[in-house]
Amino acid sequence: MALSNMGNDIHVTVLTNTGVVEQSKCTVTPTPGTGGNPAWPGNCTTFVNLSPPNN
Questions:
Q1: Which of 10, 15, 19, 42 has the CA that lies 20 to 30 A from 50?
Q2: Cβ(4)–Cβ(11) under 8 Å?
Q3: How many other CB atoms sit within 10 Å of the CB of residue 27?
Q4: How many CA atoms lie within 13 A of 40 on its CB side?
Protein backbone atom coordinates (compact mmCIF):
# COMPACT_ATOMS: atom_id res chain seq x y z
CA MET A 1 0.00 0.00 0.00
CA ALA A 2 1.16 3.53 -0.75
CA LEU A 3 -0.27 6.89 0.33
CA SER A 4 0.44 10.19 -1.39
CA ASN A 5 -0.81 13.69 -0.59
CA MET A 6 -2.10 15.66 -3.58
CA GLY A 7 -3.48 19.01 -2.40
CA ASN A 8 -6.77 18.37 -0.57
CA ASP A 9 -6.67 14.64 -1.34
CA ILE A 10 -4.92 11.47 -0.25
CA HIS A 11 -4.35 8.87 -2.98
CA VAL A 12 -4.39 5.27 -1.73
CA THR A 13 -2.66 2.76 -4.04
CA VAL A 14 -2.79 -0.98 -3.32
CA LEU A 15 -1.63 -4.23 -4.87
CA THR A 16 -4.45 -6.78 -4.65
CA ASN A 17 -3.92 -10.45 -3.85
CA THR A 18 -4.51 -11.16 -7.57
CA GLY A 19 -1.64 -8.84 -8.63
CA VAL A 20 -3.76 -5.88 -9.75
CA VAL A 21 -2.74 -2.29 -8.86
CA GLU A 22 -5.74 -0.19 -7.82
CA GLN A 23 -6.12 3.38 -6.56
CA SER A 24 -8.71 5.43 -4.69
CA LYS A 25 -8.76 9.13 -3.85
CA CYS A 26 -10.08 10.50 -0.53
CA THR A 27 -10.75 14.20 0.08
CA VAL A 28 -9.34 15.11 3.49
CA THR A 29 -9.56 18.93 3.45
CA PRO A 30 -11.90 20.10 4.80
CA THR A 31 -12.06 17.40 7.47
CA PRO A 32 -14.39 14.58 6.36
CA GLY A 33 -17.89 15.17 7.71
CA THR A 34 -17.51 18.98 7.71
CA GLY A 35 -17.72 21.85 5.24
CA GLY A 36 -19.52 19.93 2.49
CA ASN A 37 -17.02 17.03 2.53
CA PRO A 38 -18.93 13.79 3.26
CA ALA A 39 -17.90 11.64 6.22
CA TRP A 40 -15.76 8.57 5.53
CA PRO A 41 -16.16 6.49 3.40
CA GLY A 42 -18.27 8.92 1.33
CA ASN A 43 -15.24 11.19 0.88
CA CYS A 44 -13.42 8.47 -1.14
CA THR A 45 -13.83 7.33 -4.74
CA THR A 46 -14.19 3.68 -5.67
CA PHE A 47 -10.93 1.88 -6.44
CA VAL A 48 -9.83 2.07 -10.10
CA ASN A 49 -7.64 -0.54 -11.80
CA LEU A 50 -4.29 1.04 -12.81
CA SER A 51 -2.60 -2.15 -14.05
CA PRO A 52 -1.60 -2.21 -17.70
CA PRO A 53 -3.65 -4.60 -19.85
CA ASN A 54 -2.25 -8.08 -20.46
CA ASN A 55 -1.38 -8.64 -24.10
A1: 42
A2: yes
A3: 19
A4: 8
Quick check: is 11 in a domain?
yes
pLDDT of residue 54: 75
> Is residue 19 in a domain?
yes
pLDDT of residue 47: 98
* Domain containing residue 28: 2-49
In a domain, 55, yes or no: no
DSSP letter for 4, please.
E
Radius of gyration for the chain, computed over Cα atoms and rounded to the nearest angstrom: 13
Nearest to 50 by CA among 23, 32, 28: 23
Taking only the tens place, the pLDDT of each residue in 5-55 is 999 999 999 999 999 999 999 999 999 999 999 999 999 999 999 998 876
Within-domain flag for 54: no
